[in-house]
Amino acid sequence: MELNHFSHPHPLLLVEDKSDQVREAYCSGCRELIQDSSYRCTDCKFFLHKACAELPGELDHPFHSQHPLVLYDKPQYDSPCVAFICSCCRKQKGEGFVYHCSTCKFDLDIQCALLPKLIVGDFPKLKHFSHQHSLLFIEKHCIESADQSCFACEDPISGPIYCCFDCRVFLHKKCTELPLVINHPSHRKHSLTLGPNPPPFSHSKHSLTLVPSPPPSSHSKHSLALLANYPHEKGCSCHLCSKLQKGFVYYCSPCEFSISIKYIFSDLFEAKIHEHPFTLLSRPMSFICDACGICGEYCMPYICTICNLVVHKDCISLPHTIKLRKHEHSIFHVYNFLKENEVRKRICRICRKDVSMEYGSYHCLDCDDYFVHVNCARDKDLWDNEIFEEEVNQKSSETLGEGKIKHFSHDHKLLPSDELKNCEYDCDGCRRSISTAFYHCAECNYFLHKCCAELPRKKKHWNAERVRTLNFKPIFGCYFCGFYCSGFCYVNDDDRAPIICIGCFEIPDYFTDHGHEHPLFFDHKFTRECSNCNEKKGKFRCEDNCEFVLCRRCIALPETAWYKHDGYKHDEHPLALTYYDDVHDSYQWFCDICEEPRDPKKWFYYCATCDYSCHSPCALGKYPYVKLGSPAKFVTHEHPLTFMKDNLRYHKCSKCGKSCKDAFLKCVESECKYVVHYLCQ
To answer: Which GO terms describe its molecular function (predicted)?
Structure first.
């Protein structure tokens, strides 16, 4: 049985027998492993699950009731990384089918679009007091993203849920079944009513009353003071917590008393970070938490009378051990208070601020100088939940003797060489000029830096959740720097996550001497305008807080560049990345390529020998790391395609019909007239 599918130019043949399937084949629709009947194109090695091939072209989906969703074979966004974020599970997908609403920019991946019991039949709805719209009940879901939390308790979404995807509201089923009225020992005068935070009363009419603190002997490091009806943080109404809480609270309007539901039913006082149990002191206090060093005002503390410790409720459940992505060892919570003869300065390896040794912190026992604030370590986005044991055999090349190697990226043997000819060659792995020892192929024009040839096949990035595998691609968009590239990249095994080129993969999260006098570090919660290019994507910030910020693209700019494209040429000397121009004559602040003015405070490329200067985008071009003219096989066409740039002759794209005025892929067969934009293929 054959099928003509919109996602592939050739007819697809239905294969029912599992034994006839190609081993380790992945569906181009859902990117999952083929394990049952499927449609396939033998010539192109293109596969589709039978269910994915029979998906409806339009879908009226309960998650997006305003407009129908249209099925596409790739993301509908014009960007180098060619990715989208599913509006349901919030996972970023690089390839595969997507249901898309162009009006609302709403996307659903295949797994979320076909959640059980949502496409056919009725599904339960709930009208809840906390939300204006009806909530859909989902018994089984694929929402595992860290940024999706329950609107009531703020815990991650798990188990059966009620949801409103239009408003991004989620509720655990158990949270929708909370009793509306309860009696609680923390407030014996009246019953407490369930409601959203903040509760329907204000603290503004209450005066501030400070009760004298107990004598210092009762707690050597803390001044415990009882406050009267004063919220410890603006916008927070919970009398038990130590920080701003959202979600639901139980409250008493006459007494203006409220407690977050996260603590209302909790009777577990055993701490993970301490050997003794803690006791709840049922009166609001002002104190400094021994576990995290953060001030707690007008909240009920937990105390250990044996060790004379006072902690927040949240700190009782702190994990004793945490594994961070950016550090090779586990870190442990410690109460190692500063000794009198110890004066070393300690810096948090996440926020780069001082760590006070008078209170608890996380410390690496293998690295004596590695400390992390407790509140910084709480961020689960930085946790490493995957155990990575690098295998001995996971090397990218095989040694053959006499210095020769067989690399996974090339069909022929590679020979060692240190003969450099004025940077005549570019490495096929990283696409940078070769200026150190390298390997080359005696049969074809293929070169690799020695360091690129020895890259590990498996590696983990400091800002990535999963282990990645070294791969070779003829052309791809790097998610980190945004450049189009050829050669080596690190990808997830299922090839669904954004691709990172090896140059960006080696960029550390903390470094010095990059156009700024102070060290820079990566802050994943921070985004501000880049100090160099003015893009609002700067995440590398100055350690000394002098407002200097760099984006990932500027961080990835090479120290030197050879300009030899677009009809111009300056290849006698390399162009050096220069961070500022101290020339006082403004008539020299022009780009020698585009002849437009330059900002002397912005980075540029410069040749001191020739007095040749240019904007960094002009020096690098749009495709600085793409190998032109090299044929490569793509699943969308039966013949090899080559990446080309032709500013003199315009071709028509075989997919969209528009002119190829920039770069395009062209069939190497002279009789075949197939030409396509890269984003269209």
So the answer is: zinc ion binding
* High-pLDDT (> 70) share of the chain, %: 80
Least confident of 56-60, 233-237, 629-633, 652-656: 233-237
Task: For 112-137, write each residue's pLDDT tens digit.
Answer: 777 644 443 455 778 888 888 888 88
Contact 209, 227 (CB under 8 A): yes
Rounded CA separation 222/494 (Å): 53
* Closest of 313, 318, 309, 373 to residue 346, by C-alpha: 373
Task: Write down the pLDDT at residue 534.
Answer: 87
> Quick check: 335 and 374 in contact, CB under 8 A?
no
In this structure, the strands spanning 500-501 and 510-511 are unpaired
3-state helix, strand, coil in the chain (%, to 5): 10, 30, 60
C-alpha of 108 from chain center: 19
The encoded tokens of residue 149 equal 């939390």
What's the one-letter identity of residue 491? V
CA separation for the pair 668, 681 (Å, rounded): 15
The Cα-based distances of 100 to 71, 144, 198 in angstroms read 6, 21, 36
Q: Is the distance from CB of 398 to CB of 411 less than 8 angstroms?
A: no
User: Quick one: residue 262, left, alpha or beta (phi over 0 = left, psi -120 to 50 = alpha)?
Assistant: alpha
CA distance linking residue 75 with residue 84, whole number of Å: 6
β-bridge partners, 561: 575
Q: What angle do CA 511, 513, 519 make, to 5 degrees?
A: 45
Rounded distance between C-alpha atoms, residue 463 and residue 467, angstroms? 11
pLDDT per residue as tens digits for the range 612-647: 889 998 888 878 888 887 777 777 788 888 888 765
Q: Which of the four pLDDT bands, split at 50, 70 and 90, describes residue 230?
A: very low
Residue with tokens 């294969």: 15
Radius of gyration, alpha carbons of the chain: 30
Amino acid at 164: C
| 3-state helix/strand/coil string of 294-346 | CEEEEECCEEECCCCEEECHHHHCCCCEEEECCCCCEEEEECCCCCCCCCCCC
Query: Rounded CA gap, 243 and 257, in Å?
Result: 16
CB 426 within 8 A of CB 448: no
Q: Which residues pair with 369 in a beta bridge?
A: none
Give the per-residue pLDDT at 577: 92
Q: What tens digit of pLDDT does each residue of 374-425 get?
A: 999 988 888 887 655 554 447 888 888 888 999 999 989 999 987 765 557 7
Task: Return d(Cα 279, Cα 282) in angstroms, integer.
Answer: 9
Supply the DSSP string of 617-661, one letter for each residue: HHHH-S-TB--TT-EE--TTSSS-EEEEE-SSS-EE-TTT--EE-
Q: Give the model's pLDDT for residue 661.
A: 73
Phi, psi of 501, rounded to the nearest 5 degrees: -70, 160
Cite the residue boundaries of each domain of the chain with CATH code 3.30.60. 319-385
State the maximum Cα–Cα separation within the chain, in Å, rounded to a whole number. Answer: 94
Residue of 328, 330, 463 lying closest to 389 (CA atoms)? 328
Alpha helices in 439-527, H assignment, sequence order: 450-453, 502-505
Q: Using an 8 Å Cβ cutoff, are 590 and 598 in contact?
A: yes
Measured at the CA of 123, the angle between CA 167 and CA 89, to 5 degrees, comes to: 45
Look at strands 570-578 and 38-41 and give their pairing. unpaired
* Residue of 90, 253, 247, 127 whose CA lies nearest to 187: 253
Distance CA 262, CA 239 (A): 12
pLDDT at 219 over 60: no
Asked if CATH classification 3.30.1490 holds for the domain at 319-385, the reply, yes or no, is no
